[in-house]
Each structure stands twice: as C-alpha cells, then as structure tokens.
C-alpha cells in the first residue's frame, strides 16, 4: 500500500502473526494432484511450493480463523493452483516482507504494495493489479478535499497523500502509525475525520457504522486524489519467468472479470481494477 513501508501496531501485529504461525502448518493448501498440468513454467524457492509472505493489512492480506485471507491472497491462491503449486504462507511484519523477497526467503509477498521506483530497484514488481484510492471516514460523507479544512483530521503514516495533507491542514492533521490507532481515535471522538486507503476504511467502518466512507473528487491540493497509486506483488528480482506468469494471470483475471469479482467479494470497488497504463511512483 504505502510508498515505503507500513508499520502496524504491536498488539495487532502480535495477534495476527501468532494466529498465522500456529495455523500455517495445519491449514496448508491440499496436496497438488499428480496429474496437474501447470499453465506456466517457472522456478520457485522450494520445489512444488509457492512461498508467499502474508502481511496483516485487511482487506488485502490478513489472517482470518487462522488462515490467510483477503483479495491479494485469493488471487495468489488461484495462481498457485493453476500452476500446480502448494501455497506456503509465511506470516510477516510489513517491514520484513520486501527484505524477505530481496533475500530470497520467499517468492513474493502480498498486501496492497505500491509500485515505486525505489522498490523496483531491490525487487521486481508485477503489472498493476488495482488502485489504492484515497478514502475519507466522516459522519457526513465528505466528497471534497476542501471540506477537510477546519476539522481535526487523522491519517496513517506512509501514504502518498500525507505530505499534501500536512501542507493543507498544518496542525489540524494527526498522523498515526497504523489504521488501528486511527480507528480508535475516530471512535472515541478525539478526531473528527479519518483518511485511509479506501478499502481499509470500508473494512474498518462497514455499512451500519456511525461513519460514512467515501472517495473524493480529484483535487490538485492532494495529488493522490488525481492519480491514485498502482499496486502490485513484489517478487524475487531475477525470476523473470515467475514475473511473466504472474503478469499473465493478472491480465487474464482482469479480462475475464474474475479480478473485479475478487475485489468486490472483499468489499473493494470495481473501479479500483481500472489501473490505466503501468507507472511507478518516483
């Protein structure tokens, strides 16, 4: 999701990783059928397995009932199945995921990863999968960036829009280490409005909540509302065949409509699949 790395609260991360670590072995994917024929040919770190770093960033990648879940996880499960590979999930803190790809401890990682120029120097990045849209959490359903002025606003560190919001709001902006603390302060009334990734906001504040989750009209004051970040899967740098296979699957799922179905099943809007031409964040 973020331009660099994302920090999660210690409590939330500990719960997620503990549950994941306990469950990984007993909830492994079923053994691949002996007559399975892969759609693509590529090497993996462990033969017959796709080793995937699972981060805790719902609804993209997270742990539910001891098993990996989320939009990214669903997509990569299908990829593994179609290529006759057992999915081997490895629970990781966000800050450890890309280094684990870089050091070839895992084949790839999932979890709303921004496609950035800096990241592409140390790992390879797939074709864009979906957009990470600017989401506003407010009692009134704000749809204009200018309506944030005069309110106590909170957001999460590391997003593309943080610096623009600092410029626009000054001392009225509070930046949190994760969505957990942002939600706590919104619920308690310590801030008036929250700004988070649209999908994460929808997950944390579902229909029936006292808050409305909205996107906003494009506004040059916050460039991320004009050109949202594209996301992709970071994978091992020298594995071009894996990259080609991932890109082919992403394109096939987009063309068939399966990608939109996966996004919508996880509470994400169909519009986020409309990524446009590939680009990297400088």
Describe it for me?
This protein is an alpha/beta fold and 282 residues long. It folds into two domains: 10-130 and 230-273, Periplasmic binding protein-like II (D-Maltodextrin-Binding Protein, domain 2, 3-Layer(aba) Sandwich); 134-226, 3-Layer(aba) Sandwich (D-Maltodextrin-Binding Protein, domain 2), CATH 3.40.190.10. It contains ten helices and 15 strands. The strands form five sheets. It has a five-stranded mixed sheet, with helices on both faces. Strands 4-1-5 form a three-stranded parallel sheet, with helices on both faces. It has a three-stranded antiparallel sheet with strand order 6-14-8, with no helix packed on it. β2 and β3 (67-69) form a beta hairpin. It starts with 9 loop residues before the first helix and ends in a 17-residue tail after the last helix. The model is unreliable at 3-29 (pLDDT under 50).
